[in-house]
Design brief:
Elements lengths: L3 H7 L4 H16 L23 H19 L12 H7 L2 H18 L7 H13 L1 H18 L12 H26 L5 H13 L9 H11 L5 H4 L2 H13 L3 H9 L3
Helix pairs in contact: 1-2, 2-3, 3-5, 5-7, 6-7, 8-9, 12-13
């Protein structure tokens, strides 16, 4: 399966093609899940490139939402061209549309206002505003929760069923990066300064062939985390470093993130 970033680049000039390929990508991603796909924390699975264009972001989010619905109720969503989606939603069975609304509200609590890049999410929220006060209140609560998480007023809920795989992919990238850094400073035979450690980490992370470390959002978080104790890079294992980083980013204690990111459930 091609990465989502590759699909975005290959379909950049064709909205319908991007939607269709992104839907198939997420459909395949969610297929092995026994858990509810709506609990996937979508920002963890979006490449940085999708944020460069609002239309691209909206199409990818829409594809993910419809694929989450397809995981629960088979929809045939890949065969629908993006301009027809709003009509498709209007004519779907009411119970299926209820499922879709629940999915949008779940993802709204993670994505926050960014979800409105999706024409489907925007359209449904307008519908709630005018005709379903109960769902609109849920919408406002979801946005408030997202804001509190993003601003670290409350811890990030660790609900993503892929979090164990995320940790495994991160360690695949972090282990060689950390090894090269530790070997470099061991060879220098002197205590490095904090700035030297951070500069070397940024250089090594930027050269990574994967995206967990090298994309600018994650790299910024790593720099923020490592400024607290740069020397930890010289003595920590990759596993401990990831667990402590995850605790910092999600505002949990490291023993909790260690359990949650290692759990199969």
């Amino acid at each position: 399966m091609d990465s989502l970033e590759v699909l975005v680049e290959s379909s950049r000039n064709s909205p319908d093609e991007l939607y269709s390929k992104a839907f198939l990508y997420f459909q395949a991603l969610f297929r092995p899940l026994k858990a509810d796909a709506s609990k996937v924390q979508l920002p963890s699975h979006l490449p940085e490139s999708v944020y460069s264009d609002r239309q691209i972001l909206g199409l990818v989010i829409t594809a993910a939402l419809i694929a989450m619905l397809d995981h629960r109720v088979k929809t045939g969503g890949a065969t629908i061209v993006s301009p027809e989606l709003l009509v498709y939603i209007e004519i779907m069975p009411p119970e299926t549309r209820e499922y879709l609304d629940d999915i949008i509200l779940d993802q709204m609590a993670t994505l926050g206002a960014g979800i409105f890049a999706s024409e489907v999410a925007h359209s449904r929220s307008l519908e709630w505003q005018h005709h379903d006060y109960g769902k609109f209140k849920r919408c406002l609560r979801a946005l408030d929760k997202a804001a509190r998480v993003h601003q670290r007023i409350m811890p990030t809920p660790l609900t993503d069923p892929f979090r164990r795989k995320v940790k495994q992919r991160a360690l695949t990238e972090l282990r060689p990066t950390l090894k090269r850094l530790q070997e470099e400073f061991k060879a220098r035979r002197r205590q490095p300064t904090a700035d030297e450690i951070l500069e070397t980490f940024v250089r090594e992370a930027s050269n990574s062939e994967f995206s967990f470390l090298s994309n600018s959002h994650n790299l910024g978080l790593w720099i923020e985390f490592l400024r607290i104790n740069p020397l930890s890079l010289l003595s920590s294992s990759a596993v401990d470093l990831f667990d402590n980083f995850a605790a910092f980013v999600t505002s949990h204690k490291s023993d909790y993130t260690r359990r949650k990111f290692s759990s199969k459930s």
